[in-house]
Amino acid sequence: MKYSFLTLLLIFFFSKTFSQEAEKVTFSDSKNFYYRIVPEDQPEGMIIVLPGGGESAERVMNQIYLEELAFDKNILVLFPNWEEEGDFFFKEDQKFLDRIAKDNVEKYKIPKSKISIGGLSGGGMLAVTYAETAVRDKNTYFVPNSIFAIDPPLDYENMYYRLERDIERNFSEAAVNEAKMFNKELVAAIGKPDKNREKYLQKSMFTYRDKDGGNAKYLLKIPILMYTEPGIIWEMQNRGRDLYDLNCTDITAMMNLLKLKGHKNADLIITNDRGIRPEGIRHPHSWSIMDSEECLNWIIKHFKSQQ
After folding, report:
1. Separation between Cα atoms, residue 262 and residue 283, nearest integer Å
2. Residue 3 — very low, low, confident or very high, per pLDDT cuts 50/70/90?
3. What is the DSSP-derived secondary structure letter of residue 139?
4. C-alpha–C-alpha distance, residues 233 and 269, integer Å
5. What's the CA gap between 198 and 215, in Å, rounded?
6. Do residues 97 and 78 make contact, with C-beta atoms less than 8 angstroms apart?
7. Residues 39-93: pLDDT tens digits?
8. 97: burial class by Cβ within 10 Å (0-12, 13-18, 19+)?
9. Is the CB of residue 244 less than 8 Å from the CB of residue 194?
10. What is the rounded CA–CA span in Å between residue 196 and residue 71?
11. In sequence order, what are the beta bridge partners of 49?
12. What's the distance, CA 246 to chain centroid?
C-alpha cells in the first residue's frame, strides 16, 4: 500500500505525540540521566537503546518507534542520555549501564536473562563492547540476552586508516572534520597501529587481521543483529569514499566470521535507500535503516528462548 508523504508525516507525528509518556530519571550524583517507558503490566524484559556519539536520548526517541511497540508487548525500554564526558573505551559508560540496569531489574523484578541492548554507531559500539566485556571479564551487572547494532565501527585499526584517507583526500569538509576529531581521540587513547598493534587487538570490538576476530570471539553465544547500509553512490558523491572506507566492510567480515565459527544467531541485514535523517536529509548512517518492528520481533524471539 502506498501513502503520500503528507500522510506518512501525519502518521509519524501522531504516533509520537500520543505514545506512552516517557519518565525522565535523574541522579543527585551524576549529570547523566535516562528516559524510561514502563508497560502497564509486569515487564517481561528490558531493552536499553543507546544513542550515537553526541546524540541525545530525545533525538533517538524521535527517530524510532521501538518503545511504542515494546510497550504493547510488556517490555520496559530505557533511553540513556550521557551529559558527562566518558572515556574512549566506554568504561564509564558501562558503569552507567550497570547502574540503570540494576535499578530497573530490582524495581520491576525483571529477569537479568532478558535484557537486550543496542544502538546506532557509537551506541552500537558500546553494546558490542559491553557484551564482550561481560563474557570475557565477567565483571558487568548482566550478560546481554541479545545485542543489536546499527552501522557501528568495529575495528580500530581499520578505522585509523580510514580516517587518515579522509584527511588526505580532503574531499568533504564534514568528513575531514570528523576524521580529524576521531583520529586525535584514537591516537591519544591507543597510539598508532604500526607501533601499538597489540593494544589495538585488545581494545577493538573486532580485528579483521586476527584469525579469531579478536574480541569478537566472545560473542559466539550471544544473539547479535547488525544493520548496515553501504549507500556507496551517496558516499562517493558526498564523502569521496569507497567500500574500503565504510563500516559495512568490518560488519560483514565479523558476521561472516561468527557464522563460520558456528554462531547460529548472528543476523545481518543490509538495507538500501532507507537512510534518512530526521531533517529529511539522505544519509545511510542513520537510525532509519533499522526496522523497529523487525528488530523488536527478533529481540522477543530471543527473550522467549530463555523461558
Report:
1. 34
2. very low
3. -
4. 19
5. 12
6. no
7. 999 999 999 999 998 899 999 999 999 999 999 999 999 999 999 888 889 999 9
8. buried
9. no
10. 46
11. 118
12. 16
